[in-house]
Amino acid sequence: MVDVALIPGDGIGREIMPGVAAAISSITGINFVTFDISSERYIKTGIIIKDDELEELKNYRAILFGAIGDPRVRPGIMEQGVILRLRRELELYMNIRPVRSFDDKIKITILRENTQDFYTDISGIIPGKRSFNVNGTRIEIDGSSCDEVYYTMGMLSYRYLKKFFNKAFSICDSTVTVTDKANAVKMYNLWRSTAMETAIEKNINISFEYADALAYNMILNPKKYRYIIAPNLYGDIISDMGAALVGGLGYAPSANIGDKNALFEPVHGSAPDIAGRDMANPAASIMAGSMLLEYLGYRDESRIINDMVRNLYINGVFNSERTSKIIERFMTITK
After folding, report:
1. Are 188 and 287 part of one and the same domain?
2. pTM for the complete prediction?
3. Which of 120, 161, 220, 256 has CB atoms 3.0–4.6 Å from 194's, for a disulfide?
4. Residue finishing a domain among 245, 273, 298
5. How far apart are CA 18 and CA 6, in angstroms?
6. What is the CATH classification number for the domain harbouring 270?
7. Are residues 134 and 85 part of one domain?
8. Residue 307 structural domain
9. Which residues cross the membrane (predicted)?
10. Phi, psi at residue 187, to the nearest 5°?
11. Which of 321, 326, 318 is nearest to 247 (CA)?
12. pLDDT in tens, 169-214
């Protein structure tokens, strides 16, 4: 029996994930071990994630994650303290986000670098009264509260990029587009050179496209793209935009892959505006569960779940039935 960690988290994650896990367990025998890592616990105890919890999670090959975030907690505390920390500590450097329409007319996979770029949390405030030069621009701070300078540093490491592109090119089997903003941000020169170097080694043809142009062209002609490889920030934005092409964030699952561990989650977040109202679309969470099964080698079971989601979508179930009823259907079909 395989043990998988389950983190329902916050909001609609707590509504959806226990049922998804129960259904998956019923057809595979997978044992889900639940971790109470949530905003609710943080509000009550001040604990975001315990060090011993983090060490225990490293022992699981796979984690099924619901969502994190609560309007009662300042934005960024739980997101950075839980999901971004898990990505860093477990070295989940590859983020896979499929953008697929149920008629297969759109079939894009976005491969997003997952631990560096502008998500490294190297940030702060430059306090006091001072002046300095940045790339020829003189910056004056008068020391008043309305004249503080906030900064966030992006960072890319050749060693991690090399590992990322090796993994990305092992996944791609056709048209590959690498995106960035190398024309405006100098650190993406390393991104481009590492991509090109690795593509030559792998004998893979790639093309480059600036992120803003890609976003424009992706809306006009999504069939142009099969694999998009993106740095962390732009990959996050482009994949959400891609979800809008195929029905919305309710149909957007994702996988966070490392060399030893993997975490699977819906893209949509905790959706506090509809949490507790039995109206959340569970499709993305179910599809994330399917990706987990594929990763663990349960390919037939993964296909069964994907076929079930497709049938429910075609029959309009996701738009017409309550969350609890859809989960009941899911559990009945998978038994």
Report:
1. no
2. 0.92
3. 161
4. 245
5. 8
6. 3.40.718.10
7. no
8. 1-96+249-335
9. none
10. -65, -20
11. 318
12. 999 988 999 999 999 999 999 999 999 999 999 999 999 999 999 9
| Residue the block writes with tokens 């090119």 | 169
Q: Both tokens of residue 141? A: 């701070």
Q: At 85, list the tokens.
A: 């920390």
Q: Does residue 102 lie within any of the structural domains?
A: no
Rounded Cα distance between 20 and 287, Å, is: 10
177 and 136 belong to one structural domain: no
Q: Is 174 exposed, middle or buried, given 0-12, 13-18 or 19+ CB atoms closer than 10 A?
A: exposed
H-only helix segments in the chain: 12-28, 39-45, 51-57, 77-78, 85-89, 158-171, 188-202, 211-220, 232-245, 283-296, 299-314, 317-320, 323-334
**CA separation, residue 64 to residues 7, 31, 79, 110, 274 (Å):** 6, 12, 16, 20, 21
Mean pLDDT of the chain: 93
CA distance 138 to 149: 13
What tokens appear for 229 in the block?
């490889």
Quick one: 269 and 297 in the same domain?
A: yes
> In whole angstroms, how far apart are CA 133 and each of 115, 141, 144, 147, 170?
30, 12, 19, 16, 43
Q: Check whether residue 271 and residue 222 sit in a common domain.
A: no
